[in-house]
Write a structure and sequence with these properties.
By secondary structure, the chain is an alpha+beta fold. The chain has helices spanning 42-47, 49-52, 109-122, 141-148; strands at residues 16-19, 26-28, 37-39, 55-66, 72-77, 88-93, 100-104, 130-132, 158-171, 176-180, 184-188, 199-211. The two termini are 15 Å apart.
Length: 213
Amino acid sequence: MIIQDEKIMRIATFVIILVFMSGCTPVINPDSPSIPMNVSSVCELVKHSKMYNNRRIRISGEIYYGHPGSAISALVEEGCTTDGRIAAMIWLDTADWYNSVKVYNEWTWDGYMRHVNAAKTSGEPLVIPWIILLPIHPMTEDDKKILRQGVGHDSNRMNSGQATIIGRFDYAKVGWLMCDKEGRITYDHGFGHQSSFSRRILVERIESIKWEE
């Protein structure tokens, strides 16, 4: 497995929180099947990210987990690329730290502000075509322990293995505009370390995992 030697770094992202209660009206309802969609590979997920966005999926692949200078928690596959990396990497999150309930992924922060200013100038309300996030069950403490077993007691260690994971796939196409249940709007560039991942799986359950010795 070959991964870029350079650190997974970008200019530190900034997260700006604003309150626009009138701009947080959901208009898009996703299909929410209870049975996860089977995805054949990480590259398949990368290639068809728009189709799988906000869907509950089941996927198997090579997992990297640890803190070798910078945090890594991702499914990895060679043969395709993401975000300028030599291999495809899908970030794995164990929780949604923003508690967002609705998102939009078609605007950058500058694009969002242009729409805000245009609405102020015209006097018309800002309408955002929010996507209602598919709710999933929180990851259990037992599954979190299974992840941590990959590095043991060494916080600077990284390990790899094979895993089958169930969770919600999120795709920040150009950005990740979020609205929580209180109506607060938050923006981030992406997911994971330095917000440098455009794709993530919000993990619901680890179906199986086998770490390398």
